Amino acid sequence: MNNLSGRGQVAGLPAWDRCAVMGVVNVTPDSFSDGGRWFDTTVAVKHGLDLVSEGADLVDVGGESTRPGATRVDEAEELRRVIPVVRGLASEGVVVSVDTMRACVAEQSLAAGAALVNDVSGGLADPAMIPVVADAGAPFVVMHWRGFLQGGNVKGVYDDVVAEVVDELHARVEAVLAGGIAPDRIVVDPGLGFSKEAEHDLTLLAHLDRLRALGHPLLVAASRKRFLGRVLAGPEAAPPPARERDAATAAVSALAAHSGAWAVRVHEVRATADAVRVARAVEKARMAGSAPSAPGAGRAREAGRAPGTEGERGAYGTVDAPGDGSESAGRGSGRAPGAADERGAEGAR
Question: Which of 225, 245, 280, 349 is catalytic?
Fold first, then answer.
């Protein structure tokens, strides 16, 4: 993995010196948490721009719900929903990801300005997907997938969920590499909520280090998902509605960032954008605190003066604030380089 702060860097995308935030725009009438809210092209583009202004680094546009039992839209309808939104956001300098299982939609989205293909099937749903992405030289998200969420695939069965997800993802990554996609353009995703129960999702989150050991940047997509509702409700009560799970989502985002995730995918951006920046600030503080003491720092403390006085910087120098270096200060970092400064079971995610 090409490391940047230990979490990896994806060729063809900007380099963020912290966990990136991927905002979600579902151009669908039936997604599990926000179906129909952004179905109009103009409204969807505005929503994507709003997500960027709230702190999203890239925006994931999807036109097909993958919730359990969802009926697949045909290719023409998915194209009608997705392409104008991708084009509209890309024209504003937004880094756009397209969430699709169809090669044709991926190909036309890349031509319209998308920078990343996020396929929940990891290329299994459409045999043409890997050749299309490889020919375009685009980055590709390989998610753990056991088929469409219907019948027995809704609830997965695992003896050791971490070992099985890691092994199945490894096999899929090998197939993607064999299909011509470059290793530095592959992102892996454990597929929280897809053919998994709540305990499976929580166990995977507890062992993100095992997924990172695959050697590719890691995307965590926990936003508003059913397992969070189960955690919040406890064993007896009914889970809260999806839109009441954003604080829990931000908590997962902080944990994922702390564990070295490359990006988190969320519907409500502001709290997660804050969470990953705080996680990065703590990471920098830890790194500064573990640095070897500068010569003379100990003697300075014994003499009763602060290290770094009289022109000497000691071991306790200042910690960079989030936004220094390669990270854009403040919000709105989802713009592509050179753009203006302004700006599961649940499936579909």
Answer: 225
Mapping DSSP to helix (H, G, I), strand (E, B) and coil, where does residue 220 land? Answer: strand
Burial of residue 22 (CB within 10 Å: 0-12, 13-18, 19+) is: buried
Distances (CA, A) of 26 to 12, 30, 33, 82, 348: 24, 9, 9, 9, 7
Q: Give yes or no for a contact between 20 and 273, defined as CB atoms under 8 angstroms apart.
A: no
265 is catalytic: yes
List per-residue pLDDT tens for the chain, 349 residues long: 544 456 889 999 999 999 999 999 999 875 445 444 545 899 999 999 999 999 999 999 999 987 666 678 899 999 999 999 999 999 999 999 999 999 999 999 999 999 999 999 999 999 999 999 999 999 999 999 998 866 666 778 999 999 999 999 999 999 999 999 999 999 999 999 999 999 999 999 999 999 999 999 999 999 999 999 999 997 778 989 888 999 999 999 999 999 999 999 999 999 999 999 999 999 999 988 776 655 555 444 444 444 444 443 333 333 343 344 444 444 445 665 444 443 344 444 5
DSSP states of 264-288? EEESSHHHHHHHHHHHHHHHHHHHH
- Concerning whether 225 is annotated as a catalytic residue, the answer is yes
Place of tokens 């597929």: 191
Residue of 265, 277, 280, 331 marked active site: 265
Q: Which H or E run includes 98?
A: strand 96-99
* Per-residue tokens: 184: 């530095």
